[in-house]
Design goal:
It is built from seven helices and nine strands; from the N terminus they run ααββαβαβαββαβββα. By secondary structure, it is an alpha/beta fold. A four-stranded mixed beta sheet has the order 3-7-4-5, sandwiched between helices. A three-stranded mixed beta sheet has the order 1-2-6, with no helix packed on it. Strands 8-9 form a two-stranded antiparallel sheet. Belongs to the peptidase M17 family. GO terms for molecular function: manganese ion binding; metalloaminopeptidase activity. Keywords: Aminopeptidase, Hydrolase, Protease. InterPro entries: Leucine_aapep/pepB, Peptidase_M17_C.
């Protein structure tokens, strides 16, 4: 990966920034919820003890994963967070990450992808996004693609076999770590406003995409007393 491309990766913590900003809003407004915030903050540098392609890793959920691409590290750390959050039986589980270039290739940098098995939650979020002018677009958790995650060495491969449908494959991988929980929303964001989409309130650079929509949704779902 060239240095010019790497320079843009300082926004690759956009999901964590979004979650922390949303948590701040929830706490400041004293919404009547029991909030759990999990941020898998890790160092991702070249080292002698770095993971290697096709290493088999054991996750918090006890699921073994064949590391199909060492550049797809975000889903590995997010999987442990999802497993821990699911163990608390939440009423709603939301995760956000700058997870795949495939989501940006499909929708562009201005439109985060949303994956959820919960039609009601998506309907709420879609209305909130429209009300706030904070656009989102739902992509499918297409079940037949699940076989792309099959591995001969582990319970799962972390990546698909052919590189196609990458955002869906990543979301299906994460779904393995929420078990039977259906009230789960996954947002694959670029966390960036490109020059072509600069407008009032959205300058070029890092952008908390989906923050306004999620906040509106939570206010509707859990109104303050």
């Amino acid at each position: 990966m060239g240095g010019q491309l790497l320079a843009g990766f300082k926004q690759d913590m956009g999901g964590a920034a979004l979650v922390l900003a949303l948590a701040h809003l929830v706490m400041a407004a004293r919404l009547p919820v029991r909030l759990l915030v999990l941020v898998p903050a890790v160092e991702n540098s070249v080292a002698g003890n770095a993971f290697r392609p096709l290493d088999v890793l054991r996750t918090r959920a006890g699921i073994s994963v064949e590391n199909g691409n060492t550049d797809a590290e975000g889903r590995l750390i997010l999987a442990d967070c999802l497993a821990e959050a699911t163990s608390r039986a939440p009423d709603l589980l939301v995760d956000a990450a700058t997870l795949t270039g495939a989501a940006r290739a499909a929708l562009g940098a201005d439109l985060p992808a949303v994956f959820t098995p919960d039609d009601a939650a998506w309907a709420q979020l879609e209305r909130a996004a429209a009300a706030e002018g904070d656009p989102l677009w739902r992509l499918p958790l297409h079940g037949p693609y699940r076989r792309q995650l099959d591995s001969k060495l582990a319970d799962l491969s972390s990546t698909g076999a052919d590189g196609l449908g990458g955002a869906i494959i990543a979301a299906l991988f994460l779904r393995e770590f929420v078990g039977e929980l259906t009230r789960w929303v996954h947002i694959d964001t670029s966390a960036f406003t490109s020059p072509a989409f600069v407008c009032p309130g959205r300058p070029e650079g890092g952008e908390a995409q989906a923050l306004r929509a999620l906040w509106h949704m939570l206010l509707q779902r859990y109104p303050p007393a």
